[in-house]
Amino acid sequence: xxxxxxxxxxxxxxxxxxxxxxxxxxxxxxxxxxxxxxxxxxxxxxxxxxxxxxxxxxxxxxxxxxxxxxxxxxxxxxxxxxxxxxxxxxxxxxxxxxxxxxxxxxxxxxxxxxx
Amino acid sequence: xxxxxxxxxxxxxxxxxxxxxxxxxxxxxxxxxxxxxxxxxxxxxxxxxxxxxxxxxxxxxxxxxxxxxxxxxxxxxxxxxxxxxxxxxxxxxxxxxxxxxxxxxxxxxxx
Lengths: 115, 111
Prior knowledge:
- The complex is a heterodimer.
- By secondary structure, chain A is an all-beta fold.
- Chain A is built from no helices and 11 strands.
- In chain A, strands 2, 4, 5, 6, 9, 10 and 11 form a 7-stranded mixed sheet that branches.
- Chain A starts with a strand and ends with a strand.
- The model of chain A has no long low-confidence stretch (mean pLDDT 93).
- Chain B is mainly β.
- Helices cover 0% and strands 59% of the residues of chain B.
- Chain B contains no helices and 11 strands.
- In chain B, strands 2, 4, 5, 9, 10 and 11 form a 6-stranded mixed sheet that branches. Chain B has a 5-stranded antiparallel sheet with strand order 1-3-8-7-6, with no helix packed on it.
- Chain A binds chain B through residues 4, 40-45, 48, 56, 91, 93, 100-101, 103-109, 111, and chain B through 4, 6, 8, 32, 34, 41-46, 49, 51, 88, 90, 98-99, 101-104.
């Protein structure tokens, strides 16, 4: 399978714990995005990378959230001191930079439940 | 008011019916319009995309953009139970180079 891979698929944690998610994009894609999605809503942009550079973070993103893409390949998203409001599906997407229209390819997501 | 409005449904139709899914938007700078399909517990997958106004057809799917009304549509002909999913519209343009998403419409095709 050469699609976007996310790990784990599900994560249950207690409030206050730290969690880390991993995303492996499609190998030739230079852009990588993190989104968050709650039930009945569209994806909410969190951050994105072009190669290893983090180019933008959502202004709404708490400083408890941090993402890395150290070698321009896989990426990790860490949430520190989790809160119940962090419960959501965390989606990763990758794409090839395109000045006109960018086609995002999504992984199956990591479903986070904070108890 | 959200920049992109989409009726959450659910929309339930019998197999074989023509389905019409719609989004309205407020930002006249949007130029790129996309439809994604999302099955339960999966990530969205790109179904169709269009630039500016007009129609685009791909098999049983037709995407339509009316910029004067700030209204986009996705039509599905000969709908199948496998089309049951949530359909999300997304758009970008002007200063919004990031995609702005609708909330998605849940579609149910009854056999």
